[in-house]
Amino acid sequence: MKVRTRSSAIVGTICLVASLALTTASADEAAAPRQAAKVVLTEVATAQNPSAGTAGPGGTVWLAERAGKVRVLDARGLGKPVLDISSETTTDGERGLLGIAFDKKFAHFYISFTNLEGTSTVDEFAVQKGKIQPKTRRTVLTQTQPYSNHNGGDIKFGPDGYLYIALGDGGSGGDPHGNGQNLDTLLGKLLRIDPRGAKPYAIPPDNPFVNDPNAKDEIWAYGLRNPWRFSFDSGTGDLLIGDVGQSDWEEIDWAPAGSKGGENYGWSQMEGNHPFRGGTEPANHVPPVHEYDRTGLGCSVTGGYVYRGRAIPDLKGQYLFSDYCDGTLRSLQIENGKVTGVNDLGVNGGEVVSFVQGGNGELYMLDLGGSVSRIDPA
Question: Which of 106, 149, 243, 354 shows the smallest number of beta carbons within 10 Å?
Answer without folding.
Answer: 106
